[in-house]
Amino acid sequence: MSFSYEAVLTILGMASVTWLTRASGFWLVRRVVIEGRLKAALESAPPAILTGIVAPIVFLQGPAEAAGVVVTALASLKLPTLAAVVLGVAVVAGLRLVLSF
User: CA neighbours within 13 Å on the CB side: how many for 4?
Assistant: First the structure.
C-alpha cells in the first residue's frame, strides 16, 4: 500500500464539501420560519428514509429479520429509539439461533 497525495486531497475535499453542506443548512434554517406543511414534511422525512433503507432488508432476508423489524417498529411506539433497536437486534439474534437448529 502506498501513500497518495491525490487520495488525501480527495478525501479532504469530500470532507470539506460535506461539512459546508451541513453548516450552510444550519445557517439557512436559522433565517426561515418552519411551520405548517413544511414542518410536517420535515418531521416525516426521517421515518420515510428509514423505511426506504429497512424495507428491502425485510423482503430480501428471512423471517428472523422480518420479525425483528416488526418488533422494533412496535417497540418504538412506546420505548426510546435505542431501546427499540436493541430489542429488535435481540429478536433477530434469538430467532436466528432458534431457526438454525
Answer: 6
